[in-house]
Amino acid sequence: xxxxxxxxxxxxKKLPVTSALxxxxxxxxxxxxxxxxxxxxxxxxxxxELLVHQIELEMQxxxxxxxxxxxxxxxxxxxxLYNLAPVGYFTLTNKGxxxxxxxxxxxxxxxxxxxxxxxxxxxFVTDETKPIFNIFLEMIFLxxxxxxxxxxLNVGDNIIxxxxxxxxxxxxxxxxxxxxxxxxELISIENKVKRLEDLNNYFIGRELKMVELKKEINDLxxxxxxxxxxxxx
Length: 233
What we know:
Structural class: alpha+beta
Mean pLDDT: 78
Shape: rod-shaped
CATH superfamily of the largest domain: PAS domain
Low-confidence stretches: 13-17
Number of helices: 5
Largest sheet: 5 strands, antiparallel
Order of helices and strands: HEEHHHEEEH
CATH architecture of the largest domain: 2-Layer Sandwich
Oligomer: single chain
């Protein structure tokens, strides 16, 4: 009797366990059956994302090409303006070494641009105006503002050129940009004008003295009862 009851009891206990396992098995089967569908959906989504990413890369590449072309065009225009400017442009270190120079600048110093690289700009400054240039260069890096000065350059064979220098420090404070304007002809004209003015003043002064002298002679003749010698005074 006890044995039979035990068997019945075991059967009763076994049923819930069997039902739970079956439910798990069905769930796993459902997962397995749905997995290919999920993989297919995932594959489509992945392909879509890859295609979109590829298109984005192609668009980015086109934008980069356009930007590079624009940069090249701007750089070419800058190079043309820099080299063809009627003003000498120099890039100097704080020691006065020439890092870059445009065509007008090299013409001003009567040298090829390649021969001026890393040479000292101060080498061309006359001894009389070199202290002015040294202070000018020092103040550019010290004040970080525009500085201006007038110096003379000896460009070989005792050819002296008078120039106006305007400089400013670069953003990294390691170099400075110098604009050089040749004022030799202007100063020469000013000197000629001054000489003409001096000469004119000399003759005017001389003429005034002659008028005064003639007046004195007339006054002297008049005091002696004689006629004036100079009627136009």
